[in-house]
Structure formats: C-alpha cells, structure tokens
Write a sequence for this structure.
C-alpha cells in the first residue's frame, strides 16, 4: 500500500468520528459559511443511513404510535462503518505486508491495531444502531430533550475518536493522552441523567480513573527515563516498536517500577483491582448504549495498552515479573467480582461485575502468555465486546419497559417483551460461555493454555475456573429469575420502538466467531504474534 | 550560571515545591489551600526554567512558562471561581454549613503531617534505583516529585470536600510533572501539550460536576455520596 493510502486509513478511524462530532455540535449554533463542508458531511451521512432506515421500517410494522422520527440520530452510524472498513483494509494489509506507519511513526497499524479497530467498529455499530430507538423512547418519556440528545451524540462520537486514537497510535505518550481523553468525554455521558445516583457515579468515575491513570503516566515517564538512559533519542524514546526492539538495554529496576505503575494505572481503566470501584457505578448509571461501549470496548482498549507494555516488560525483565503481577491482579479481581455477583440485586450492575470477571480472564490469559493464551485473550476481547454490548443494549430496553433496574422487580420478561428479553437471555448465555458463542472457545483456550504452562499458572487457572463457576451460577440464576415465569404486567408493545437488528447482528457475529474465525484467522494469529506470542 | 548556584537554586525550588504540598495538608481554609497550590505551580515553573537555562534549551524554558501559566494561573483561577460560587450561595441563603472549609478531614492535621513525613521517606526509598541510574543534581532531587505524588494521593483519599479532592488530584499531577522534568528534562512536547490539555479539561469537568453534586446533594461533602454501593 502506498504511503498516502495508509496515512488515510490510519487517520480516518479517529478523524471521521471527530468530524461527525463537530457536525453534531454545529447545527445548534448559528450556521456559518465555514460550516458548509461539515453540514455537507451530515447530509452525506443522512443519505448513507437511508438504507439502514429502510431496514428499520421493515422490522417495525406500521402500527406505530411511533415517537417522532429523528433521522439525524442515524448519522452516528457513519463512524462505526468507517472504523470497520478501515479496520478490515488495514487487517488485509498488515497480514500481507507487515505493520504500516505514517506521520513519522506517530500513527502505526500492526495486527493488534487492526483487530482492536474491528472490535471497536463492531461494538460501536451495535451501540449506535441501537441508540436511535433508545433515544426516541427517552424523548417521548421526557427524560431527554433535544439539547441533551445533541450533547449525547457529540460526546459519543468524540468518545469513539479517542478510543480509535488510543488504538492506532504507536507513541506511548499519545496513547496515554487518548485514554485519559476517553475519561473526560464519558464523564458527562455517565452523569447524563443528572440524578443523585448518576452525578455520584460520574464524580467517582472521574476522580478514580483520572487518579489511576495519572499513575500510568508516572509509569510512562519512568519508562521514558529508562529509554533515554539506554541511549534512545528523545523523539523515539516513547515509540513502541523502538522500545520493543531495544528493551533489553532498559535498566531493570527502573523498568520494573514503571511497568508496575503502568499496569495499575491502565488496570484502573480496564476495571482491574485495586482501582476498580468506579466500574459498577459508571456502567450502571450511564445510558444503555454508552454502557455498551464502555463495557464492550473501553475496558479492552485500556487493556490493549497493558498488552503493549507487557511486550516491553517481558523483553526487559523476563516473563516472570508481569506474569506474577497480572495473575495476582486477575485472581483478586475475579474473586471480588464473583463475590459481589452473588449479592447483586441490580441487573445493570450485575452486567458490570460480569465485565470485571471477563477482564480478569483476559488478564489471566495475558499472564500465561503462550501463543494459544494470547490468541484466546484476543478472541475473548472480541467475544466479550459483542456479547456484553448486546446485553447492555437489551438491558436498556428492559429498563425502559419495566422502569426499574432491580432484579427482584422484574419477572416473566419473556412473556411481556419477547424481543428484548430474548436478546438479553441469549447475550447472557454467550457471557456464560455457552457454545456456539465465541466465549466458549476462548475460555476453553485459556484453560488449556493455563494447564499446559507449568505448575504456577495451572494452579491459578484451577482457582479461576472455580471462581468462574461461582459467577456462572450467580449470573444464570438471576437472569432466569428475570426472564422466566408468568408475566406480571401487560405485554409491552416492544416492536414499535425497539431495533432488533443490531442486537441480532452482534449475537450472530459472536456465534460465528465461536464456530470459526474464518477470514479473521490470519489477523488474529498475527495480532497474537505482535504481542509476544511467538 | 555556575554549577553550585544552579544546584542550590534547583534544590531551593524543589524544597519550595515539597513544602507547598505539606502546607496544603496543614491548611483547612479552601481559599488558602488554592493560594498555596498556585505557589507550588510557581515552584514547578521555576524548576523547568532552571533546567532549561542550565541545559541551554529554549524550548524547556518555554515549557516552564507554559506550565507556570497553567498551574499557577489558570487552574487556581478556575478553582477560585468555583469557590466564589459556593461562597455567594452560602451568603445568599445564610446557610450554617461551612462549604469553604475542610471541617473534618478523615485524618487530623497532626497525623496528616506525620504521614507526609513517612511518605517522603518512602519516596526516597522508592526512588533509589532512579537516582542510581544517572546521578545528577536534577535526579538527586527526583524523590521530591514522587513524594508530592504520594502526598497528592493522600489528600485525594482523606479529604471530604469536592474541591479539596480536586486539589489532591492536581498535587498528584504536579508531582508527576516534576518527576518528568527532573528525570528527563520533560517528556516530548506533543505529549506535554496533550497532558496539560487533558488535565485542564479534567479540572473543568470536575468543576462542573462539583456544581452538580451540590445541586443534587445540597453539599460538596463527598461522604454524602453513598447511594451507590454493594
């Protein structure tokens, strides 16, 4: 691929959401001549979404006391589509020709980048495809005004841009800036409803995540210091490929301190102990599509940073250090999540704790570090992203129908609202790692890799399986209680304002990944190789 | 600038930097805490300018001036504005609660100061490998940055007023910037810009959230935020 094409492919995933965010921000202000290109962009986006709009009409039959249509809500789908297209083109390219870089190495795509872009794009497609119906109900229930909906769109698009920047950059400093930017942008999405609960959740979220991620910056500074002392020039001392290539020359003591801080800091964003306390609150209070994005991809984008640093750490310190650190953190997180799942009374928080459970599985797989384990971890990132985003979207609809997030007040949902309840049930089944969903394959892979990796990892894996069983029981019992039984209320009219296709698409993709990775096999293998699974 | 004068000035600036963090622990009036925080920003800028002058790097002096404007000017201004809003409200409704004072920190002042001493010792112990790697006057002062990071964390955990927590977060951030400056004469410019921008936005977000917390809970006492728990 020539340099211009790769520069465009690397820039577009972050730039297009930013442009869409700008376009959403503009129309409310006075239209100026200079705004013309952006306005044209919106019109273009509107034209592009009309095909999707037809699908919606086809699935939502004519008997609608339908809330008024808001076609601009669909313009948000432009960004996920662009991210997916760029991700697939980059994936095809890096498999054939190896990593590409542009802007003198600032943006760089290897197989891990392509894989993460695909996951971000797919989850964003689910969340942005579900959002218009969700927002329509919020509008008609007077929980959202035109202004808050515009702000919602601007923030979600900026959020996507920040995540994509975090994925495509090769500079560890810019990576940190992008991850911290996601915190700032999502703060207002968490506090969207301005109730006591959501303000409290937003406060905790910003304080804990910002302080946690500040630690990651301190760690980044220490790595930079070690790199400078190892004779790497200032311009390249935060460049990931350079650091990996010359990691053996980094001072071990300084690197150890730096890596510990980095793992704790980015671990805060990834929902790992000790700085995990924000996660259930934020995921429970954010609007459903935002919860889907935060849980489905933000956690794994932050974890991808840990994956990058692990390569440096293993080359500089040997595999033992990060293995012990990550395995310890994974087990503690899992024990905490399983324990709190047992006592859970709120289904959105239940899903949040299930995210912590799955992130700890990914952390454990990273700790094991064999090629099989890393491949399974990457597959788990994708499967968890798809299944969890479907579960959160469906839970948002359930909350709109029942008016509560308490598990105890929801009964017989399958009889009342078959579509959202069915999607929720299938998504939870995927999260419980039932075949054919891909989480079955990845958890099996993690377990096999764990038992093959020697005594220490085998014990950790055994303990993990036991804790996963506890989480399984808690999640299954609560979901069954919500879904099954005789319906209490009148059957809810679910078809008029519920978009099923994004959720079905997500579940189908998750199941397809479980049956076989198909054309993605090459990029998955290459990604596992790029993060050290040689 | 002669070597010994440079070392003395650098140590003076670092000493002032650490002292400001300790005084933040000592004071309870939020207005004076913000004033001390601004002074710490000046000390931080002085460290950057000294390093830049010593190494003859104009860009570092520029970074120092930028850091000074942000940490000693803009951020204290934003916090003072938030404080004025709270204060004006208090006068209007003549509420008895003192929102502008840290009335009951979780740890009292004497214990806080003792903890600060312990944290400084801890920072010196933890920074040993950093200093040994490349011993210069600047890296020998590096534990000061780490000590301020730890003190910032301590403030963040033990203070109950929303604004006092914001100050804790900013102390943490000042400490990290100082560490970066002392260890490596600062991170590359693009990262420095991004970090400063992020910090500024984070403070703006926290300021807006402070207002919302007060609207929703009627106080900025973070201890009252206990509706979400398991």
């Amino acid at each position: 691929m020539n340099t211009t094409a790769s520069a465009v492919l690397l820039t577009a995933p972050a730039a297009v959401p930013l442009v869409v965010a700008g376009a959403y921000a503009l129309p409310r202000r006075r239209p100026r001549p200079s705004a013309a290109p952006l306005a044209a962009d919106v019109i273009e986006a509107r034209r592009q979404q009309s095909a999707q709009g037809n699908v919606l009409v086809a699935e939502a039959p004519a008997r609608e006391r339908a809330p008024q249509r808001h076609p601009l809500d669909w313009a948000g789908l432009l960004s996920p589509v662009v991210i997916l297209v760029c991700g697939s083109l980059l994936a095809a390219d890096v498999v054939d020709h190896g990593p590409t870089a542009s802007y003198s190495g600032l943006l760089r795509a290897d197989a891990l980048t392509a894989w993460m872009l695909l996951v971000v794009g797919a989850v964003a497609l689910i969340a942005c495809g579900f959002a218009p119906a969700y927002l329509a109900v919020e509008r008609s229930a007077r929980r959202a005004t035109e202004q808050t909906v515009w702000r919602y769109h601007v923030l979600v698009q900026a959020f996507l841009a920040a995540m994509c920047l975090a994925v495509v950059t090769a500079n560890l400093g810019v990576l940190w800036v992008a991850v911290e930017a996601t915190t700032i942008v999502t703060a207002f999405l968490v506090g969207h409803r301005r109730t006591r609960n959501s303000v409290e959740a937003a406060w905790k979220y910003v304080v804990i995540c910002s302080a946690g991620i500040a630690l990651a910056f301190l760690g980044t500074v220490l790595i930079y210091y070690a790199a400078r002392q190892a004779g790497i020039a200032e311009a390249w001392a935060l460049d990931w490929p350079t650091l990996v290539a010359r990691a053996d020359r980094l001072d071990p003591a300084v690197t150890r301190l730096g890596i510990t801080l980095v793992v704790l800091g980015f671990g805060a964003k990834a929902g790992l102990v000790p700085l995990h306390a924000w996660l259930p609150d934020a995921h429970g209070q954010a609007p459903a599509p935002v919860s889907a994005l935060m849980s489905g991809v933000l956690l794994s984008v932050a974890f991808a940073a840990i994956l990058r640093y692990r390569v440096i750490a293993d080359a500089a310190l040997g595999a033992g250090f990060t293995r012990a650190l990550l395995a310890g953190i994974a087990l503690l997180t899992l024990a905490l999540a399983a324990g709190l799942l047992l006592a859970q009374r709120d289904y959105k928080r239940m899903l949040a704790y299930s995210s912590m459970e799955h992130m700890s599985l990914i952390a454990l797989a990273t700790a094991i570090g064999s090629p099989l384990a890393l491949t399974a971890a990457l597959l788990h990132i994708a499967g968890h992203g798809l299944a969890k985003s479907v579960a959160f979207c469906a839970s948002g609809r359930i909350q709109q129908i029942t008016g509560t997030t308490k598990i105890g007040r929801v009964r017989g949902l399958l009889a009342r609202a078959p579509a959202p309840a069915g999607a929720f049930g299938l998504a939870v089944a995927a999260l419980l790692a039932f075949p054919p969903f891909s989480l079955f394959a990845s958890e099996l892979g993690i377990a096999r890799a764990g038992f093959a990796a020697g005594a220490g990892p085998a014990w950790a894996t055994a303990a993990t399986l036991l804790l996963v069983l506890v989480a399984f029981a808690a999640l299954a019992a609560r979901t069954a209680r919500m879904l099954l039984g005789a319906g209490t209320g009148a059957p809810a009219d679910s078809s008029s304002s519920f978009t099923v296709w994004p959720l079905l698409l997500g579940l189908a993709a998750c199941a397809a990944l479980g049956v076989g990775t198909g054309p993605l096999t090459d990029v998955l293998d290459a990604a596992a190789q790029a993060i050290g699974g040689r | 600038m002669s070597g010994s004068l440079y070392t003395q000035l650098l140590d003076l600036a670092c000493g002032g930097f650490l002292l400001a963090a300790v005084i933040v622990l000592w004071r309870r009036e939020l207005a004076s805490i913000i004033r001390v925080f601004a002074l710490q920003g000046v000390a931080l800028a002085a460290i950057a300018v000294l390093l830049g002058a010593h190494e003859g790097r104009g860009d570092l002096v520029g970074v120092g001036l930028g850091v000074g404007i942000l940490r000693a000017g803009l951020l204290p201004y934003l916090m003072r504005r938030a404080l004025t809003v709270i204060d004006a409200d208090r006068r209007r409704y003549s509420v008895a609660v003192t929102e502008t004072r840290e009335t009951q920190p979780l740890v009292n002042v004497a214990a806080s100061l003792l903890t600060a001493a312990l944290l400084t010792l801890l920072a010196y112990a933890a920074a040993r490998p950093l200093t040994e790697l490349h011993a210069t006057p600047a890296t020998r002062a590096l534990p000061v940055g780490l000590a301020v990071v730890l003190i910032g964390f301590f403030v963040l955990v033990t203070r109950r007023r929303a604004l006092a927590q914001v100050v804790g977060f900013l102390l943490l951030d000042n400490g990290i910037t100082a560490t970066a400056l002392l260890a490596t004469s600062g991170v590359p410019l693009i990262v420095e810009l991004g970090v400063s921008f992020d910090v500024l936005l984070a403070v703006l977000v926290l300021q807006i959230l402070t207002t919302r917390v007060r609207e929703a809970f009627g106080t900025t006492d973070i201890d009252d935020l206990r509706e979400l728990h398991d």
